[in-house]
């Protein structure tokens, strides 16, 4: 059986998010859904998996709330459900930046469709920023993109502060896996006085789904937050695995390293594990 993985988010005012948790949990459990759904006052963020029929029913259930009627999602398929269980969690933020003034419900950057993304990032006056964390960027990114080298998204404002003068008069184009981080990052930049701020609509996942490989400026694979670890340009499971010691994606080259010890360490955490 082929299962469906659906990724979606929506920034929208949900003052009753605590009350919504048990009803969403109950509905998903009845449909044998696995994955993670985050709820906060600022909206919803999720990656879930199940049969195509079950996913369709869950999305219809969520969209029955008029505030989520235009909820967009991205899809990919896999041969087994890449989650062990279902979690519906309450959070302060659906993606943690730690900047209360960054509110996509009030302002956000210009959304750029995947088919127009290549033209934007080829412009020499455009600064292209990968808003994901270092371990994600390590296995794939867009050609020419700047890597902030963050360990956590909440470190992103510090990166911007360090490069404020360099970026000030440029067009800034940002991207992430599904669109949520660059949407919040774009709100933060606008609040900081940056004027031309763009974001890849639907993130890398939509880009890989809509832009043919022969036209693509994507290099490598895309890290995903489930047991698949990474997907390729055809949205198929990639060739990376996850180090059980540190969670960093590893491939056969990493396994060939003398610093790789199965179940104990990989080249990315060897020194820490030995210490």
TrEMBL record:
Enzyme Commission (EC) number: 1.14.-.-
GO molecular function: oxidoreductase activity, acting on paired donors, with incorporation or reduction of molecular oxygen
Keywords on record: Oxidoreductase, tRNA processing
InterPro entries per record: Rhodanese-like_dom, Rhodanese-like_dom_sf, TrhO, TRHO_N
Cited SUPFAM superfamilies: Rhodanese/Cell cycle control phosphatase
Residues in coiled coil: none
The organism's place on the tree of life at top rank: Bacteria
Function statement: Catalyzes oxygen-dependent 5-hydroxyuridine (ho5U) modification at position 34 in tRNAs.
Family: Belongs to the TrhO family.
NCBIfam families: PRK00142.1-4
Protein name as catalogued: tRNA uridine(34) hydroxylase
């Amino acid at each position: 059986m082929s299962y469906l993985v659906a990724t979606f988010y929506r920034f929208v005012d949900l003052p009753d998010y605590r009350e919504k948790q048990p009803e969403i949990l109950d509905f998903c459990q009845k449909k044998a859904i696995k994955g993670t759904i985050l709820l906060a006052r600022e909206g919803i963020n999720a990656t879930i998996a199940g049969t195509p029929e079950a996913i369709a029913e869950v999305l219809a259930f969520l969209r029955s709330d008029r505030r989520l009627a235009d909820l967009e999602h991205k899809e990919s398929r896999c041969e087994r459900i890449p989650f062990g269980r279902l979690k519906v969690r309450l959070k302060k933020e659906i993606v943690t930046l730690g900047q209360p003034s960054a509110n996509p419900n009030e302002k956000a950057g210009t959304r750029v469709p995947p088919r127009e993304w290549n033209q934007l990032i080829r412009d020499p006056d455009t600064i292209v920023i990968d808003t994901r964390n270092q371990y994600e960027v390590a296995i794939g990114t867009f050609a020419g993109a700047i890597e902030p080298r963050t360990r956590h998204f909440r470190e992103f404002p510090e990166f911007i502060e360090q490069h404020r003068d360099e970026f000030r008069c440029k067009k800034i184009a940002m991207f992430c896996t599904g669109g949520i981080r660059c949407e919040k990052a774009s709100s933060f930049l606008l609040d900081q006085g940056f004027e031309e701020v763009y974001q890849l609509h639907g993130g890398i996942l939509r880009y890989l789904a809509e832009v043919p490989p022969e036209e693509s400026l994507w290099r490598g694979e895309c890290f995903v937050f489930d047991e698949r670890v990474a997907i390729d340009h055809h949205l198929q499971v990639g060739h990376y695995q996850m180090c059980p010691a540190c969670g960093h994606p590893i491939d056969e080259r990493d396994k060939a390293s003398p610093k790789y010890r199965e179940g104990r360490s990989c080249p990315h955490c060897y020194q820490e594990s030995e210490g």
